[in-house]
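Morning, I've got a small favour to ask if you have a moment. I owe you a coffee for this, so here goes:
>
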Amino acid sequence: MSHPLLPMPERTEESDAVYSVLGRALAYATEFEVNCRTLAHFFDIEKSDSAFSYEIYQLVKSGTLHAKIKLLIDGHELPDWVEKKVHKARKARNFIAHEAAEDHKRMMSTPQLMKSFETTIMQMSGEIADGNQIVLDITRILKEGKRGHGSDVVAYPLAVASWISRDNF
């Protein structure tokens, strides 16, 4: 049902399927954001020599995740591409959370645009999966002090894509 102040696109089986892909992608993008915040907190606590919570609070609220990732790359001798992939994932997260969510009506106006919209969402989700895997691995390094890759490089992005995809039903 539509209202003059809130005109909604027509609901069809195809549009419902694409909206469900967007919804799952948005949920995953939000999880990535939470994982980034967790990593930032772990990094700040690791760098703190003080047990005082106020000082830890000051560290947590200072600096960007990007700057912290750069320090982690240098401090833990991680490959240079790590920073690029995490940055790309953050841009993809912002696209899904902001641009896609705001422009969904136009993108859902024709079957061709729906397919293009869904393809873009899946591509952005893949970029988030790459970055999220890195963030989770770096978090594990900080928590456990172990080096090396902790997750299956190929299976993780495929599992994310499978979960977000409309074929998930």
